[in-house]
Specification:
Length: 605
């Protein structure tokens, strides 16, 4: 592609673009985390040798096996990294703004180990080999950052494991009833809509008039089994032994309470999914069990006819889990900055993006727990506005110094009122809340018990609110140990992890409180005034945030697309600026939508 014709918009520069272009590119370079700490003279040298390149979606930037000749930093957009395997090229990573690639080939002199393709229209900063090596010589810090990032990527690879591949053949053990047939068609339609591949449903008793995207056949041929992108074969419970042997299925569904214990024991390599339609409220937490309500049988394509119903959402979630494209989201800690989660959520709701797994810490725990329970961004905005609008009424309940300045009863009551008896097991979407245990000093991830107690624990700021006793633990704010729980979601099997991060990445200079003059008087009134000073809470939250930065940066390597609102000028204690913070979160999510859509898009099998 001819770069010169694409690089003349504001903030972009082609070689020889002039002083204004140089100034704009220097600003871009200073804004990149890798280069942010470079001295001015080094930035000037790098600017003189760097160029920006805009590429369209689908364009190949480098290929595995080629000699490495340049280092790339993503300024805007997203790229996909594809590694060669015996089965062809497989997606191993997606890199967004501020991330880079191409350094290994330049450092080792070996050929490129992967192919990199633009997922969306992407703007890159490009440094040729000589300029890259000069940058490392002039800036040991940049070399350390690159080395640190390589270590993080290795950790991410080891923790996340290989990207999952959707099954191509599913054996469905189903009773010979009309309800079971209707359920199978609904599942086939949901799989088609979520994977965007044609689905073949093999059912001798099925209705050939299937919804669009699904083909019903009476028998499975060898050609269909081997070449169709996705096949679901209905198996007679009384003849499963003879029917399953030639199928070589990749997954097993057990519908309607059929006794499949012998079959499951005979095929231990398969994960059995037990599917029912008897619940009052649908519940799909993982691939092993999916319980729908009977409204799922009202239409052969419920996922389309009633798109916004609980039944349709549950069908889509199960289809994504089966197709190995579950979507998870991590909401970070951040004090008042965490209110930005509401704005990001508002944008994602508008875009129709759904979540299959949710984790949150501290303020992110409030948001994550609410979303998992079924609350919308509007519901959460009202809740946080109520809390922030009058903290004396909603939060402040001072007592004599003990475990904390506040008793914490008002905070507990707020969360209890949202759902006093709701347990994790009742949530329509699985949720994990991160806390820290004062007894063992370890991270405790809560995923069972009462949800309101977990949210109460993950927001128990040490020294401000007392610890929350759960199961022999004394739990406090998880911000201390894990401010961005992307690793929790990866361990739980999430295929794509999104995040909204307002912790550990912003400069703390904005949080520095003005100096407080020494008190001129003594006595209990002065003592009360001092312990209720906003500076105490602000200092505690800022100190926690500083301590969380290393873990936050490590977990960002596990994220496929991250919304990072601009929090400059917003402190961790600015709870009265709700509307402004929400707007910043919404704007940041809107800017990241192309990258998010690319991250969650169906991938070839």
């Amino acid at each position: 592609m001819a770069e010169q014709s694409l690089l003349m918009s504001a903030g972009e520069r082609a070689p020889g673009g002039g002083a204004d272009a140089d100034t704009a590119l220097a600003a871009v370079l200073r804004g990149l985390p890798l280069l942010a700490d470079l001295p001015g003279d080094v930035i000037a040298e790098v600017t003189a040798q760097a160029r920006q390149r805009v590429v369209r979606a689908g364009e190949v930037l480098c290929r595995a096996g080629e000699a490495g000749d340049a280092f790339y930093v993503v300024h805007r957009g997203m790229v996909r990294v594809l590694a060669p395997t015996p089965r062809g090229e497989e997606l191993v990573a997606q890199l967004g703004p501020g991330q880079w690639f191409g350094e290994m080939a330049l450092i080792t002199g070996e050929p490129r180990s992967a192919t990199v393709v633009a997922a969306v229209e992407t703007t890159l900063v490009v440094l040729e080999r000589r300029a890259f090596q000069q940058m490392l010589r002039r800036s040991p810090n940049a070399a350390m950052v690159i080395s640190d990032t390589l270590s993080r990527r290795l950790r991410a690879h080891l923790l996340a494991g290989p990207l999952h591949v959707r099954p191509r053949c599913i054996a469905a053990l189903a009773p010979p009833t009309a309800d079971a047939r209707r359920m199978l068609v609904n599942l086939a339609v949901a799989l088609h809509d979520e994977t965007q591949v044609p689905v073949t449903l093999v059912d001798p008793h099925g209705d050939p008039r299937a919804p669009e995207g699904v083909t019903v056949r009476s028998e499975v041929s060898e050609e269909t089994r081997d070449t169709a992108p996705l096949v679901i074969v209905c198996v007679d419970p009384d003849r499963h032994a003879e029917q399953l042997a030639p199928l070589r299925p990749h997954a097993l569904w057990v519908l309607g309470g059929v006794d499949a214990r012998k079959l499951v024991a005979a095929y231990p390599q398969l994960t059995a999914s037990h599917i029912e339609w008897t619940a009052v409220r649908p519940r799909v937490h993982d691939q092993r069990a999916a319980v729908f309500d009977r409204s799922v049988l009202d239409d052969p394509a419920t996922v389309r006819a009633g798109r916004h119903t609980d039944a349709a959402r549950a069908l889509r979630r199960f289809a994504r889990i089966v197709a190995r494209r579950s979507i998870a989201i991590a909401f970070s800690a951040g004090g008042a900055r965490g209110i930005a989660h509401v704005g990001a959520l508002r944008c994602l709701e508008r875009a129709g993006i759904e979540f299959d797994l949710i984790a949150g810490t501290s303020m992110g725990g409030i948001i994550g727990g609410g979303v998992a329970y079924g609350m919308t961004s509007a519901d959460l905005y009202r809740l946080l506005s109520e809390i922030a609008g009058n903290p004396r009424r909603t939060l402040l309940d001072f007592g004599l110094p003990g475990d904390a300045i506040l008793r914490g009863r008002k905070k507990s009551d707020i969360f209890r009122r949202q759902g006093p008896t709701v347990r994790f097991e009742d949530l329509p979407t699985p949720f994990w809340a991160v806390t820290a245990d004062l007894v063992t000093g370890r991270e405790i991830v809560l995923s069972s018990g009462l949800v309101w107690q977990a949210v109460d624990a993950t927001t128990a700021i040490p020294g401000i609110f007392p610890p929350v006793a759960i199961g022999g633990h004394r739990l406090v704010d998880g911000w201390i140990v894990n401010s961005l729980p992307a690793d929790v979601l990866r361990r739980e099997g999430a295929d794509t992890v999104l995040a909204v991060c307002v912790s550990g990445r912003q400069s703390s200079s904005d949080d520095a409180p003005p100096p407080v003059p020494p008190p001129e008087t003594t006595g209990w009134r002065t003592w009360l005034r001092r312990i209720t000073s906003p500076s105490i809470g602000r200092n505690m939250l800022t100190a926690i945030d500083i301590g969380a930065r290393e873990r936050t940066m490590a977990n960002l390597a596990l994220v496929d697309a991250c919304v990072t609102p601009n929090m400059k000028g917003i402190t961790v204690s600015d709870f009265r600026r709700v509307d402004e913070i929400v707007e910043r979160g919404e704007a940041a999510a809107e800017a990241m939508l192309p990258a998010i859509r690319a991250a969650i898009a169906p991938r070839p099998a």
